[in-house]
């Protein structure tokens, strides 16, 4: 659950990305980050569930294209039950509520939000929620002060109070092991335009281990040709991981953008692929 070594993992992933065509050895990658091969292998497998060698295959464009082909009908199938159906992450159900038009215009006036910083498998995060649901989950890129300022800019009329005990319970549920049962849905409280809400709700329909293109997402919500607008809405997703904006790729299998860094997007996708396509090393 708590992975303080994520920065070492990210450093290794960046090295693997930069040298993917060379298929670097375990010893080479370990030396790059200053670890012994044994220590690095143990650390990496603890985090990813597979060896660095196996993980490397999940970083290739070829693998991304295979995932896209395998996921071609995923949105069509998901949308047969409608956008109002529950999103699903492992055995984790997600229910969605949007703020009222008045709350949207007033930037959340009279809403009381509690927040906290926590470690996750993908680095430190900031989670904020109200009694109605989680309204923000971001990875800390430029320090905690900057993260708080960004939260305040989105919810500038809301009352913020730190409560790591309450947010910790939510973080534990979000990043729980896949076989851990969840008793009730995780509630999300979203603040966005009607178009953004439609895109974010569509993202909830993409299962773990599947990916779609920006174009396919645009078609699925009834706006074919609006890839750029969809991309902008995806990039403004306020709730990382739970609303899986990391599962959208370019048509050519390219990674595309990610609000919290390309390396982190690759790490999340590859770890999900490892969870779903686990092959003994």
Automatic annotation (TrEMBL):
Gene Ontology terms describing biological process: DNA repair; methylation
EC annotation from Swiss-Prot or TrEMBL: 2.1.1.63
Domain (HTH araC/xylS-type): residue spans on this chain: 10-107
GO MF terms held by the record: DNA-binding transcription factor activity; methylated-DNA-[protein]-cysteine S-methyltransferase activity; sequence-specific DNA binding
InterPro entries reported in the protein's UniProt record: Homeodomain-like_sf (IPR009057), HTH_AraC (IPR018060), MethylDNA_cys_MeTrfase_AS (IPR001497), MethylDNA_cys_MeTrfase_DNA-bd (IPR014048), MethylDNA_cys_MeTrfase_DNAb (IPR036217), MethylG_MeTrfase_N (IPR008332), MGMT_N_sf (IPR036631), WH-like_DNA-bd_sf (IPR036388)
UniProt keyword terms in alphabetical order: DNA damage, DNA repair, Methyltransferase, Transcription, Transcription regulation, Transferase
Transmembrane intervals: none
Catalytic reaction equation(s): a 4-O-methyl-thymidine in DNA + L-cysteinyl-[protein] = a thymidine in DNA + S-methyl-L-cysteinyl-[protein]; a 6-O-methyl-2'-deoxyguanosine in DNA + L-cysteinyl-[protein] = S-methyl-L-cysteinyl-[protein] + a 2'-deoxyguanosine in DNA
Alphabetical list of Gene3D superfamilies matching this protein: Homeodomain-like (1.10.10.60), Methylated DNA-protein cysteine methyltransferase domain (3.30.160.70), Winged helix-like DNA-binding domain superfamily/Winged helix DNA-binding domain (1.10.10.10)
Entry-linked Pfam families: DNA_binding_1, HTH_18, Methyltransf_1N
Family: Belongs to the MGMT family.
Protein name: methylated-DNA--[protein]-cysteine S-methyltransferase
Organism encoding this protein: Geothermobacter hydrogeniphilus
Taxonomic lineage of the native organism: Bacteria, Pseudomonadati, Thermodesulfobacteriota, Desulfuromonadia, Desulfuromonadales
